[in-house]
Amino acid sequence: MLIVLAIMALAVALVMPRGAVLLDRMTAQTVFFDFQRQVGALRRDAADGQASLLLVDSDAYLGAQARFDGRATLRVVDLGPGWTYRLTRPIAINEGGACANAGVTLMRDGKPIMHLAPAEAPCRFTRLD
Questions:
Q1: Range of the structural domain that residue 17 is part of
Q2: How far apart (Å, rounded) are the C-alpha atoms in residues 86 and 105?
Q3: pLDDT along the chain (129 residues), means of 10
Q4: Which run of H or E residues covers position 51?
Q5: Contact 95, 52 (CB under 8 A)
Q6: What three-state secondary structure class fits 69?
Q7: pTM (2 decimals)?
């Protein structure tokens, strides 16, 4: 009986750390899909409303409002508690739904978790890591 308990304890000790890493990866992938979905929704909003949008960093939103020229509506994407993103430059979405290319870094609690690059399709991204 003691040997069985020791084997089970060893199995749990080996599996649990990997389970936590797997859960973190799944969470990051979910946040990536959510970011992609929200950017796609902004693209549709721009095309439907025939209005230009400018997607800015979640951290730089207030600063962007202060120096904004008013030609487009500023937007940010909400990724949930603890998650933010940083753009290599603001993403302009014109009235037709076309997007400017920019790289994206998804961050959790200020730490970079995932880097995204523009994909072939408009307003789409691919994982770099």
A1: 2-127
A2: 5
A3: 79 71 87 95 91 83 56 86 93 89 93 92 87
A4: none
A5: yes
A6: coil
A7: 0.79
